[in-house]
Predict the 3D structure of the following.
Amino acid sequence: MRFRYILPLIMALSGHGIAVAAPFAYITNQLTNDVSVIDTATDMVVATVGVGVTPLGVAVNPAGTRVYVANVNSNSISVIDTATNTVAATVPVGNDPIGVAVNPAGTRVYVANRSSNNVSVIDTATDMVVT
């Protein structure tokens, strides 16, 4: 069976995060604290990237060069370089980050922090929190 048919069902039932940077899909795995990189053309897992504890939210920048992963129990964002499928940076944020979004220009990442009840804003040029 092809991933394109079962992936939406898996995501709906499991609570995993998914983001696409063609031709790859990035899927968070909360129990193993990593991200699976799937080649959507071949439906094969081509890499597994270790990130922080309990990865959940995930987003890709508009250029498709960086993937941002919210690590709920590490209070951090892992920045994955899509060219190498390695963690390029780990950015500390508020408590229990669950959601992440990148602005259309790709210059800012917005992180929803559940327990600290705030939003962290990351400058993508420096991978530093600016507010």
Notes: Residues 3-129 form a domain with the Methylamine Dehydrogenase; Chain H fold (CATH 2.130.10.10). Residues 59 and 68 are 5 Å apart (CA to CA). The longest strand covers residues 44-50. Residues 3-14 form the longest helix (12 residues).
